[in-house]
Amino acid sequence: MDIELRGVTKRFGEVVANADVNLTIRAGEVLGLLGENGAGKSTLMNVLSGLYRPDEGEILIDGEPARFEGPGDAIRAGIGMVHQHFMLVPVFTVAENVVLGVEPTGRADFLDLETARRQVHDIKEKYGLEVDPDARIENLPVGVQQRVEIIKVLFRSADVLILDEPTAVLTPQEVEEFFGIVRALRDAGKALVFITHKLNEIREIADRISVIRAGRIVGEGDPKRLDRKELAEMMVGRPVSFDVVKAPYAPGRTLLDVQDLTILRDNDEIAVDHLSLSVRSGEIVGIAGVQGNGQSALIEALTGLRRAASGQILFEDQDITHASVRARHRMGIAHIPEDRQRVGIIKNFTVAENMVLDTYYDERFSSGPQINWKTVNARAAAFAEDFDVRTPSVFESAGHLSGGNQQKLVVARELSREITLVVAGQPTRGLDVGSIEYIHKRLVEARDTGDGVLIISSELDEIMALSDRILVMFKGRIVAEFDATQGAVDKGAVGLAMAGAAA
Ligand SMILES: Nc1ncnc2c1ncn2[C@@H]1O[C@H](COP(=O)(O)OP(=O)(O)OP(=O)(O)O)[C@@H](O)[C@H]1O
Ligand SMILES: [Mg+2]
């Protein structure tokens, strides 16, 4: 099935998210869609998947104009989308989520769950998508939730698959497996649109690349011919540096001291197992590890979102093991959460409101019960400018910002207040190369001015580029430590430790 978008324009009030876009998507081909945060990629794909009606232009399927009144029409036409932000129901099981919204077919009045579980199992086997059909979504790590989203689309036997940053939450190993699936689908004649900010990935998997900037297609290219730097420049319109420059390593006093910490998951399994670590002033400690080895629980415990089962957390020599989220926040711990949609922002609050979340009791912003909105709005506008959060104004709902700009909003808020320790989970997930360059600069700046930084990331390159010390987490424990202050660390060795090889 071939698709053609012709002259598609989509506006949100004053914002022109897509401007006169022409794009062809062909059967048996992977089209890579590249563009900065807020360029209009998701919007364009939401138009194609029937979620949004274009203001102008049309969609042709095999040359015939199609009209989608909603996602149901697009799905019936064979177009399926895996969304950038999961659209799963947290309290439902995997199987329940997969069948959700599928209409009754054939003789049965309803699609019974037993059949669904079997079909999920078949898809899972066929494509190697490991997931338990009976698991509840809320108990699954994000990486596994993404797999469920993929199964969901495959379950609806789509001919055109739109994958909006599907690898943002996958481990390098999962990405390779996932690429296997993508290639199999392509070879089976499906048309695929693949959105990612990872330039090496797009070069590896795409047959063709289209670049979108400020809503317009600004170029097309052959992924085999363009290198990372050329693609980056095409995207952001200026040269991008991939290197991180840091001041010499000069650590000070210990800020964070974690002693023998054990943390349980919701199902009482051990997530973090007698773990100890410390972070000093003026250093970046990076925790490398394949997702699902307890990193999320560790961050939650450090920031007060999850109880410690045993052990201690000291911050500036004070015991904060049982301190509240707000208490830790006020003590100067910044938190960049890995799941920005769940804990980072409140979607139907404005950008300005989100900028002062949890700071509103600060006397600069409020005098007594009154919040000084003038000050709040002015500060928010300055932060947004400072961190290049692309929004029409600070009065826009945070949920209307593009994914990457929501992330920048959280980072701006957390790094713009008085802090001494930054705890960051996947701080650059979903960001474009220009924004990553910027966030890295800010994290290094925090370190260079004496803050402690703890970064947990499944991007090994990110850990390698930023860290003074690298800790590897595996099955809830620190299994290896690498000193990155004495020259480059052997990436292969870190990778081996991540895979659980005895250090
Ligand atoms: N529902 C909406 N209401 C108002 N504005 C919106 C809405 N959805 C998107 N926008 C705006 O449209 C523009 C394009 O956003 P879009 O989400 O398509 O970007 P993107 O290329 O997918 O970015 P990212 O890489 O960050 O995901 C942005 O300026 C965004 O703020
Ligand atoms: Mg997007």
From TrEMBL:
Domain ABC transporter spans what residues? 3-239, 256-500
Q: Which PANTHER family match?
A: CARBOHYDRATE TRANSPORT ATP-BINDING PROTEIN MG119-RELATED, GUANOSINE IMPORT ATP-BINDING PROTEIN NUPO
State its location(s). Cell membrane
Which UniProt keyword terms apply here?
Answer: ATP-binding, Cell membrane, Membrane, Nucleotide-binding, Repeat, Sugar transport, Translocase, Transport
Q: Name one GO cellular component term.
A: plasma membrane
Question: Could you tell me what this protein is called?
Answer: Simple sugar transport system ATP-binding protein
Phosphoprotein keyword on record: no
SUPFAM superfamilies per the record? P-loop containing nucleoside triphosphate hydrolases (SSF52540)
Query: Which terms does the record give in the GO molecular function aspect?
Result: ATP binding; ATP hydrolysis activity
Looking up Pfam families in the UniProt record yields: ABC_tran
Give the source species: Actibacterium naphthalenivorans
Principal localization? membrane
What topology in the membrane does the UniProt record assign? Peripheral membrane protein
